[in-house]
Amino acid sequence: MNICVTGGAGFIGSHLVDRLIHDGHTVLVIDNLSSGNKEFVNPKAQFIEMDIRDSNLSSIICEFKPEYIFHEAAQTEVSVSMNNPKLDCDVNLMGLINVLNAAVTCGVKKLLMPSSAAIYGDLDTLPLDESMVGIPTSCYGLTKLTTEHYLRIYHEAFGLNYICYRYSNVYGPRQGNGGEGGVISTFAKAIANGLPITVYGDGDQTRDFIYVDDVVEANILGLENNVTGIYNISTNIASSINSIINEFKCISNSKIDVSYACERIGDIRHSRLDNKKAQQDFSFKTTFNLRDGLYKTYEYFKANK
Ligand code: UDP
To answer: Active-site residues: which are they?
Structure first.
């Protein structure tokens, strides 16, 4: 099938493109390389360097005649969204509308894209499930929550089928290329380079870490199954930052220089997402345990110092 992937040079997008190519699809990648890397783009994919806000986007996509669009291009950093809410809104909402209009114009079967656990804000009833009403605490969380409503409205008004995935904390190779990345890739990169790491807070805060290949699998299942709507994609397992460091000590077989600093402003203490809906509706399950995922991530950063 012809499949268009915006943001296909980015962290999750490039892994998804690799899988789609592996599965025999013809893939068009559209990416402005603002945080993506051309080297991450599978050489068997067609590549067009373009911003999702470009007025030519719809004609470029329609010319390719995609059956599906994965919209992975986004401003993904909470800190950027707080320092520059206008940029965040421009990319994540004006860009989104451009992509949605293209999807409707081309008559794609479905549009699939990420939302984020950030839409839940600081709700403390864990695990978080899709029925809970989130109150985002960042501009990024707000643009993602608004994204979900745009998708619902485009579905109801224009018949656009969609899946929107609320990912927990995704990690893996290639993360953090054009920006912060998450704690695991930050640590893996530092440890692979023999550099110290900093823990913000006491390290007992927990997150629900999911390996990027499991997230890709969720996207493939969303493509193959006749489902529309919003889904948490997660492990539903809580791991503390201190436990991640202990795992890295074993994996790297080295002493790690750890210092503890003040908690980051706006950080939440615990986050974990229920994934029952995805299990029930399209048999989603994770295959990577934390140790395997951390090992693969560490090996990647060691090989790409
Ligand atoms: N964190 C840390 N050291 C770092 C980066 C992050 O201790 O170098 C902590 C951070 O303060 C937070 C947790 O790790 O409590 C997860 O941070 P991340 O930015 O990966 O995800 P988020 O907070 O957005 O869920």
So the answer is: 140
Helices and strands (DSSP H and E) totals, the chain: 11, 13
Closest ligand 1 atom to residue 271 Cα is: 25
**Measured in angstroms, how far is the CA atom of residue 304 from the centroid of ligand 1?**
22
Closest approach atom of ligand 1 to CA 264: 11
Q: Which one of 3.40.190.10, 3.40.50.720, 3.40.30.10, 3.40.470.10 gives the CATH number of domain 2-168+212-235+272-289?
A: 3.40.50.720
To test the pocket of ligand 1, the residue of 168, 200, 301 to mutate (highest count of ligand atoms within 8 Å of its CB) is 200
**Residues 291, 247: Cα–Cα separation, whole Å:** 7
pLDDT in tens, the chain (305 residues): 999 999 999 999 999 999 999 999 999 999 999 999 999 999 999 999 999 999 999 999 999 999 999 999 999 999 999 999 999 999 999 999 999 999 999 999 999 999 999 999 988 899 999 999 999 999 999 999 999 999 999 999 999 999 999 999 999 999 997 777 899 999 999 999 999 999 999 999 999 999 999 999 999 999 999 999 999 999 999 999 999 999 999 999 999 999 999 998 878 899 999 999 999 999 999 999 999 999 999 999 999 98
Q: Which residue has the tokens 């090996």?
A: 299
Closest Cα partner for 44 from 66, 72, 24? 24
Burial (Cβ within 10 Å: 0-12, 13-18, ≥19) of residue 220: middle
DSSP state string for 240-261 = EHHHHHHHHHHHHTS---EEEE
**C-alpha 262 – ligand 1 centre gap (Å):** 12
Q: What predicted TM-score, i.e. pTM, was given to this entire model?
A: 0.97
* Cis amide prior to 127 (ω within 30 degrees): yes
Query: What do you get for the CA distance between the two ends of the chain, in Å?
Result: 36
The answer to whether 237 and 208 are in contact (CB under 8 A) is: yes
Identify the three-state secondary structure at position 225.
coil
